[in-house]
Design goal:
Length: 117
């Protein structure tokens, strides 16, 4: 630890400070990431999965960085072939995949039987 930091702490504690934690800072509070904006972003993506982050930000009038955080971190979407898709599959999605795969296997087996004849 540097001497200047030790002197600074001595000064702070001499003035009555009792904690090493950061003091509350003034400035604009983080207000863009709220439930209303999260819901709005999710609705826009569900309506048009090809919508860009820039377009969502313009439509909702919130910063692109906030939209990016909501889409990727909060909602868990990622871009796949120009569309937003959830990163994690829900149980319904998993069941749909199994059902579709079974139907495709049935079609394939019918085609293979016809082809063999």
């Amino acid at each position: 630890m540097s001497r200047s930091r030790v002197y600074q702490w001595c000064t702070w504690f001499g003035e009555g400070r009792t904690s090493l934690g950061d003091e509350p800072k003034s400035g604009r509070p983080k207000t863009s990431t709220n439930e209303e904006n999260i819901t709005s972003v999710d609705e826009l993506i569900r309506c048009d999965r090809r919508m860009k982050i820039r377009d969502i930000a313009l439509k909702l009038e919130i910063p692109k960085s906030t939209v990016h955080e909501i889409v990727h971190d909060t909602l868990g979407y990622q871009k796949v072939s120009v569309r937003w898709v959830p990163k994690m599959l829900t149980e319904d999605h998993k069941l749909q995949r199994v059902e579709i795969s079974q139907r495709l296997l049935q079609r394939c087996s019918h085609c293979c039987v016809r082809f063999a004849e």
